[in-house]
Amino acid sequence: MEFEDEAFVLAARAHGETGAVVELLTARHGRYAAHVAGGASKRMRPFLQAGAPVLARFRARTPEQLGSAVLEPQGEGPAALFDDALALAGLSAAAAVAAGALPEREPHPGAYLAFQALSQALAEPDIWPAVFVRFEAGLLEELGFALDLSKCAVTGQADDLVYLSPRTGRAVSRGAGEPYKDRLLPLPPFLLSAQSRLEAGDVAAGLALTAHFLAAFIFNPMDRPLPPARLWLVDRLREAGRL
What we know:
CATH 2.40.50.140
């Protein structure tokens, strides 16, 4: 079994004295783990950081085998964010969420494209936290848990959608949701339209919303918490006054 694919590094851990087992999010083959010879070397280590773009050449004797990969760096990746610790935290959090949520060896091209879009947006400090929320919403959709933001779950109307049901992930209008607002999740306007202006509190509401559904639909059923890198990102954004 052999293939070549564009990929992002999600995680890497030492294996033996010189090798590493690297988790990859590939464009056409989904999440793959592979042994990378020399992956523990100083030369390779910078290219195995979370979020690094690579070209992966994968080989295994059988489909069930771990297999090995030769990785060729593609672009700067995390190195371009060296002076922006907050953006690096965002990249690490996205990699951790993707690694934890995506099933292994199952194609999810939408997840790859969402990760790619986020990695490109990280150079824009004012917008990437909102793009991160969209990345997580896209990941939910890719895994079959799309949020229904098309109309109010109660009235069927498409106007003035300001809440989300924490149970179903369906939007609720202001009028229909007002009596139950303490039990509903705030729905930030930027998730309804890319043209909406970001207001104070919108990113915090978006992160709380996607965290709720990632936990409820994906991580809790696997009896696992949200990745620590995701929780740490929220703390860092709050400390930086970005929420």
